[in-house]
Amino acid sequence: MGFKAKEAGDTTGTIQFNFDGEVQGSCHIVIQDGKLEAKKGTAKDASMTINSPFELWMDIMTGKADGQQMFMEKKYTVDGDFNLLLRMNQLFGNE
Protein backbone atom coordinates (compact mmCIF):
# COMPACT_ATOMS: atom_id res chain seq x y z
CA MET A 1 0.00 0.00 0.00
CA GLY A 2 1.37 3.33 -0.95
CA PHE A 3 0.36 6.92 -1.37
CA LYS A 4 -0.57 7.78 -4.96
CA ALA A 5 0.87 11.28 -5.26
CA LYS A 6 -0.30 11.69 -8.86
CA GLU A 7 -3.86 10.84 -7.88
CA ALA A 8 -3.77 13.24 -4.93
CA GLY A 9 -3.46 16.26 -7.19
CA ASP A 10 -4.43 19.33 -5.18
CA THR A 11 -6.03 17.33 -2.36
CA THR A 12 -5.29 18.77 1.06
CA GLY A 13 -6.36 17.44 4.41
CA THR A 14 -5.40 15.82 7.66
CA ILE A 15 -6.66 12.35 8.49
CA GLN A 16 -6.63 11.43 12.17
CA PHE A 17 -6.58 7.76 13.17
CA ASN A 18 -7.64 6.70 16.66
CA PHE A 19 -7.01 2.99 17.21
CA ASP A 20 -8.29 0.67 19.88
CA GLY A 21 -8.10 -3.09 20.32
CA GLU A 22 -4.85 -4.96 20.82
CA VAL A 23 -2.89 -1.97 19.51
CA GLN A 24 -4.05 1.37 20.87
CA GLY A 25 -2.96 4.88 20.01
CA SER A 26 -3.30 7.79 17.64
CA CYS A 27 -1.54 9.03 14.56
CA HIS A 28 -2.38 11.26 11.64
CA ILE A 29 -1.38 11.93 8.08
CA VAL A 30 -1.19 15.28 6.36
CA ILE A 31 -1.82 15.42 2.61
CA GLN A 32 -0.67 18.61 0.92
CA ASP A 33 1.02 19.59 -2.35
CA GLY A 34 0.97 15.99 -3.61
CA LYS A 35 2.89 14.76 -0.56
CA LEU A 36 2.03 12.77 2.52
CA GLU A 37 3.53 13.21 5.96
CA ALA A 38 2.78 10.74 8.77
CA LYS A 39 2.92 11.89 12.38
CA LYS A 40 2.37 10.35 15.80
CA GLY A 41 -0.31 11.65 18.12
CA THR A 42 -3.37 13.78 17.66
CA ALA A 43 -3.73 16.43 14.96
CA LYS A 44 -4.79 19.94 16.01
CA ASP A 45 -7.28 20.36 13.17
CA ALA A 46 -8.13 17.06 11.50
CA SER A 47 -10.23 17.16 8.35
CA MET A 48 -11.46 13.64 9.06
CA THR A 49 -11.16 11.28 12.02
CA ILE A 50 -11.29 7.51 11.73
CA ASN A 51 -11.98 5.53 14.91
CA SER A 52 -11.22 1.85 14.38
CA PRO A 53 -9.76 -1.25 15.94
CA PHE A 54 -6.16 -1.31 14.70
CA GLU A 55 -6.42 -4.88 13.45
CA LEU A 56 -9.53 -4.06 11.39
CA TRP A 57 -7.90 -1.03 9.79
CA MET A 58 -4.84 -3.07 8.85
CA ASP A 59 -7.15 -5.67 7.25
CA ILE A 60 -8.84 -2.90 5.26
CA MET A 61 -5.52 -1.41 4.15
CA THR A 62 -4.18 -4.80 3.02
CA GLY A 63 -7.37 -5.82 1.23
CA LYS A 64 -8.32 -8.58 3.67
CA ALA A 65 -11.52 -6.68 4.55
CA ASP A 66 -13.75 -4.41 2.47
CA GLY A 67 -13.67 -0.90 3.93
CA GLN A 68 -17.11 0.05 2.64
CA GLN A 69 -18.67 -3.12 4.01
CA MET A 70 -16.98 -2.66 7.40
CA PHE A 71 -18.25 0.94 7.54
CA MET A 72 -21.80 -0.16 6.68
CA GLU A 73 -21.58 -2.77 9.45
CA LYS A 74 -20.43 0.01 11.83
CA LYS A 75 -17.14 -1.73 12.58
CA TYR A 76 -15.45 1.69 12.51
CA THR A 77 -16.66 5.29 12.56
CA VAL A 78 -15.74 8.42 10.65
CA ASP A 79 -16.20 12.06 11.64
CA GLY A 80 -15.54 15.10 9.48
CA ASP A 81 -14.91 15.32 5.72
CA PHE A 82 -16.57 12.17 4.40
CA ASN A 83 -15.28 12.98 0.89
CA LEU A 84 -11.77 12.08 2.04
CA LEU A 85 -13.01 8.65 3.08
CA LEU A 86 -14.62 8.17 -0.32
CA ARG A 87 -11.28 8.99 -1.99
CA MET A 88 -9.14 6.62 0.11
CA ASN A 89 -9.02 3.94 -2.62
CA GLN A 90 -7.99 6.61 -5.10
CA LEU A 91 -5.30 8.07 -2.82
CA PHE A 92 -3.82 4.81 -1.48
CA GLY A 93 -3.03 1.42 -2.93
CA ASN A 94 -0.82 -0.26 -5.45
CA GLU A 95 -0.03 1.84 -8.49
Question: What is the CATH architecture assignment?
Answer: 2-Layer Sandwich
Nearest-angstrom radius of gyration? 13 Å
Number of helices: 5
Number of separate strands: 7
Please outline the major beta sheet.
5 strands, mixed
Q: Please trace the helix and strand order, writing H or E for each element.
A: EHEEEEHHEHHE
Strand content: 35-45%
- Integer average pLDDT: 92
Briefly note the structural class of the backbone. Answer: alpha+beta
CATH topology: Nonspecific Lipid-transfer Protein, Chain A
Rounded to the nearest angstrom, the distance between the terminal CA atoms is 9 Å
Can you identify the CATH class? Alpha Beta
Q: What's the overall geometry? A: globular
The CATH superfamily is: SCP2 sterol-binding domain
Helical content (DSSP H or I, runs of 4+):
25-40%
Strand order of the largest sheet: 4-3-2-5-6
Parts with pLDDT < 50 across at least 5 consecutive residues = none
* Count of distinct structural domains: 1
Describe this structure in words.
- The structure is a single chain.
- By secondary structure, the protein is of the alpha+beta class.
- It has a single domain (2-87), classed as SCP2 sterol-binding domain (Nonspecific Lipid-transfer Protein, Chain A, 2-Layer Sandwich).
- Helix content is 28%, strand content 38%.
- The chain has five helices and seven strands; from the N terminus they run E-H-E-E-E-E-H-H-E-H-H-E.
- The chain has helices at residues 5-8, 54-61, 67-72, 82-86, 88-91; strands at 2-3, 13-20, 25-32, 35-40, 48-53, 77-80, 92-93.
- The strands form two sheets. Strands 4-3-2-5-6 form a five-stranded mixed sheet.
- It is globular.
- The mean pLDDT is 92.
